[in-house]
């Protein structure tokens, strides 16, 4: 049973642990508790070793344990022999319970915990809803090449492309939080998981999906919090090498796509004689070969003190598409009662346009390194570094059967055919992540931890070989091209460039610092696990992208503003010297530097008044300043003080039979969503989006006459737009779409 109250504001997730806890009781063969027994936990698959003493009730607890497989050993005690418990699994944010029964003197006891022994055991103290995908599950379950292929194991999670990725309990993909080794890696602007941070399975040790009832230490989200912990080294050398592949011959062909054709006739009588048609085009299958090589090696640098793990797992996607070009669809294609495509004629010629082959290679690099150290018994730490850029060479601009018109493109003074120019295109999303952690355990009851993470990206995909000049698109009525000398090669559908939106830079840097401490107490009405923490984080975005200096000029020959669907009403009498069509100049882009500061503070107590009842009581305080979001904005910054976002977290769990297999639990809490930069940096920040509307005159029918300079004249783009024709421009109206009423 879970009761939750979700309140959506802007904040960031923090306090995300990448470790688990272990507790238990030491007893003699008759079940009586034994105190002052030295209990040592030693890592089998991870470098870790810690020793604690059982208390007066025979209880022991070890906190902040890296996930992995362990064994417990106890030292011989007067009257009792040493004992060993093996094959213990520790998972993310779960309390693993292991009770140790000592044998009599001179008899060593060894217990091997098999998977069947723990299959039905749960964490009876937890009141949250979460799914842990353990290393054994990752190894045995069918999966893809990246960690998100396993998220549907969580009952509340489903993949939903229409909601931006994975939908959890009805929340969209932008309402989830993704963490790798405790650091948030979702896109700072949209909130969805960046492809470069969808790391390969070869790097993953465990995945946890929290969907409700989080304790106060977690910032949370209105969807899920997905935590990924990477593999680490141990005292034994281990590694794996291999490769996967995916080829088009093993994939199905595309299905028919049903489309609707609306008659291009302009008179009512002609439309009545030529009704709408439904028709289907079956696209051809691409030829592709994807490869997923991987190599991982881990082991000791200095046994029992320093361990390493290194991995290289690139993902290579190679695609070839042959595009066939057909003429724009018209009534003539349905003269037989069914759809019959006509070939597109070569621009400036009389022969059909031959097919063109396009190629693209995308390479996602994943080079990972990790060091973990424990040079002193009470101090432990580690660092990770992930180099994960996405590099794209080539471009595939069209589907396999298209009405588009491939044209030559001049770049650096050389005219390239369409298939050759796209080989020059591509882009790069530079990316790297760094995390570090440090734990101090002064006593068996006190643990303090510190964490720092940095995430860097410069998103410049699709940025190679772009032209920094106006883009022209010829549209309107097909019949107009028979009487108007437009200058558009190939007629309707011509465009001199596929895009001129250039990203000079789009750098985002996220820095997070966090610290927390916990203290175990016996007394005050039961057992208490007090915990508190603080986070400070900052996101900086430096961006300059778009085509605000060049723009896209779209010409609608033979149409007025209404027929062109512009949404404006301006003077234009078709067929007159002053108007043989209309056009619009669209300019958009984003420029500026934005940053925000977020902080969080929490206190919580896991209180066990009895052996079966656990109460999780906590509260969070958060402060957010979404200030300096792309300087120059006329909209004031948004700030939430410490008293604006107070989040109580209350939960309880009861172990029904006391065997850790059945519990009743519930929770209540406030959960604030995290910050997304999309609107602060866009509509509230550095976005520029203006559209100018102008007539096409009979005196100047050719498309190239209508340059942005002629359209704008000496207009200076004041806030709100205006009428550039008053300053010598051709534009009759400029609309500033940054204004909310527009």
Number of helices: 6
CATH fold group of the domain at 129-231: Ferric Hydroxamate Uptake Protein, Chain A, domain 1
Which CATH top level class of the domain at 129-231 fits? Answer: Mainly Beta
Q: Mean pLDDT, rounded to whole units?
A: 87
Report the biggest beta sheet as strand number plus sense, adding barrel if it closes: 8 strands, antiparallel, barrel
Structure in words:
With 742 residues, this protein is mainly β. Among the domains are: 20-117, Immunoglobulin-like (Sandwich); 129-231, TonB-dependent receptor, plug domain (Ferric Hydroxamate Uptake Protein, Chain A, domain 1), CATH 2.170.130.10. It contains 6 helices and 42 strands. The strands form 7 sheets. Strands 20-21-24-25-30-26-23-22 form an 8-stranded antiparallel beta barrel. Strand 24 and strand 25 form a beta hairpin. The longest helix has 9 residues, at 678-686. The chain is elongated, with a radius of gyration of 32 Å. The model is unreliable at 1-15 and 114-120 (pLDDT under 50).
Question: How would you summarize the topology of this molecule?
Answer:
Elements: E1 19-27, E2 38-43, E3 49-53, E4 59-66, E5 68-74, E6 83-90, E7 95-97, E8 100-101, E9 109-112, H1 115-118, E10 129-133, H2 135-140, E11 157-160, E12 165-168, E13 177-180, E14 183-184, E15 204-212, E16 225-230, E17 238-247, E18 256-261, H3 268-273, E19 277-282, E20 287-302, E21 306-312, E22 315-325, E23 356-364, E24 367-376, E25 379-387, E26 390-394, E27 401-402, E28 409-411, E29 414-416, H4 418-424, E30 426-443, E31 446-464, E32 471-476, E33 502-522, E34 527-546, E35 552-557, E36 581-608, E37 613-626, E38 638-655, E39 663-669, H5 678-686, E40 687-696, H6 708-712, E41 721-722, E42 733-736
Parallel strand pairs: 1-7, 1-8, 6-9, 13-16, 22-27, 32-35
Antiparallel strand pairs: 1-4, 2-3, 2-5, 5-6, 10-15, 11-12, 13-14, 15-16, 17-20, 18-19, 20-21, 20-22, 21-24, 22-23, 23-26, 24-25, 25-30, 26-30, 28-29, 30-31, 31-33, 33-34, 34-36, 35-36, 36-37, 36-40, 37-38, 38-39, 40-42, 41-42
